[in-house]
Amino acid sequence: MRLISLAPQFEVTEADFIVQFNQDIELKKNSKVGLLNLSVSLDNSVSDVLRVELVNVPIESMNGKTGRVENILQVLPSLDTQPPNLVYQNQTPVMLDLNNSEPMLLSNIHVRVLKSNGDNLAVDRTKTQPITLTILID
């Protein structure tokens, strides 16, 4: 298993960013991925369910609200959080199957954190690293 820490490499105002790797990450056939933790410096309070997506990683998870297969890594329970920080720790990550019947290389990962209405989560852009998350890949 491999831990991968993801954070924006440039200034962001929303939880929607792409992390470019210095070296491609090789994923073996039939890999799995799970969210270990998420830390966000918030721009304003959040009282919502949040959805973490890996946009360009072929996760096969079902959106229970729409009935469609989407690239949802994790749905965070209903939160009532005041700025400045939201920290989510997952002691037992749910490992989701990647839809990779062959080994694949990842040169980047597109991360998005959405509120229940589909809007991107706003982050405090004055912070050096307003959002970080750690994923586990097997």
Nearest-angstrom radius of gyration?
15 Å
Low-confidence stretches: none
Number of strands: 11
Shape: globular
**Strand proportion:** over 45%
CA-to-CA gap between the ends? 4 Å
Q: For the residues shown, what is the average pLDDT?
A: 87
Number of helices: 0
H/E element order: EEEEEEEEEEE
Structural class assignment? mainly beta
Specify the biggest β-sheet.
Answer: 5 strands, antiparallel
Report the helical percentage.
under 10%
Verbal overview:
It is built from no helices and 11 strands. It is globular, with a radius of gyration of 15 Å. With 138 residues, it is an all-beta fold. The strands form 3 sheets. Strands 1, 3, 8, 9 and 11 form a 5-stranded antiparallel beta sheet that branches. It has a 4-stranded antiparallel beta sheet with strand order 2-10-4-7, with no helix packed on it. A two-stranded antiparallel sheet has the order 5-6. It has strands spanning 2-6, 16-27, 32-41, 46-54, 61-62, 69-70, 72-81, 85-89, 96-97, 104-115, 131-137. The protein starts with a strand and ends with a strand.
Features of the shown structure:
138 residues; mainly beta; five-stranded antiparallel β-sheet; four-stranded antiparallel β-sheet; 55% strand
Give a quick rundown of the structure.
The protein is an all-beta fold.
Task: Note the topology.
Layout: E1 2-6, E2 16-27, E3 32-41, E4 46-54, E5 61-62, E6 69-70, E7 72-81, E8 85-89, E9 96-97, E10 104-115, E11 131-137
Antiparallel strand pairs: 1-11, 2-10, 3-8, 3-9, 3-11, 4-7, 4-10, 5-6
